[in-house]
Write a structure and sequence with these properties.
The chain is of the alpha/beta class. It has a single domain, classed as HUPs (Rossmann fold). Helix content is about 45%, strand content about 20%. The chain contains six helices and five strands. The chain has a five-stranded parallel β-sheet, with helices on both faces. Helix 2 links the parallel strand 2 (about 30-35) and strand 3. The longest helix is centred in the middle third of the chain and has 17 residues, at about 95-110.
Length: about 160
């Protein structure tokens, strides 16, 4: 059985994330979507809230081979503990590749078994980021084109600045 891990902050989950989750779930027997702590990024949603949002999206899409989990340590330690085969990363632009390539090399150095595959986003998702979604939602903008409907209200309510 091939086990893949798709790590990220998912703060909040977007259609871009969903695209990568859906595509990766078709490539592997099991996919773990791993909500990771990034100390360099302030988060709007707690780890548990992000996991809840991802659960809703995965259930709505009927992605039965996808598991949601979280990790507050090194990805490679989680990878080893779960005996995973592959790390999945989504790429939107060249700048993503430079950063993710460095991370893939570091992970490979820490664990020779750690293979990373890159899935490029569809053109309609190349501009999409959680940061952009948060900023639009904060000022009352419509984010329905950017996040799955099953989590739209929860994300909008949390992020909207009360005026």
């Amino acid at each position: 059985m091939k086990l893949a891990i798709y790590p990220g902050s998912f703060d909040p989950v977007t259609f871009g994330h969903l695209e990568i989750i859906s595509r990766a779930s078709k490539l592997f027997d099991k996919l773990i979507v791993l909500v990771s702590v990034n100390p360099n990024k302030p988060s709007s949603f707690s780890i548990e809230e992000r996991k809840e949002l991802l659960h809703k999206v995965v259930e709505a899409e009927k992605l039965n081979n996808v598991e949601i989990d979280s990790n507050d340590g090194l990805l490679i330690d989680y990878f080893t503990k779960r005996n995973a085969d592959v790390i999945v990363k989504g790429l939107r632009a060249i700048s993503d590749f430079e950063y993710e390539f460095q991370m893939a090399q570091a992970n490979r150095r820490l664990c020779y078994k750690a293979e990373t595959i890159f899935l490029t986003a569809k053109s309609e998702n190349t501009y999409l980021s959680s940061s952009m979604v948060k900023q639009i939602a904060m000022f009352g903008g419509d984010i329905s084109d950017f996040v799955p409907e099953c989590v739209l209200n929860q994300i909008t309510e949390r992020l909207r600045i009360k005026q």
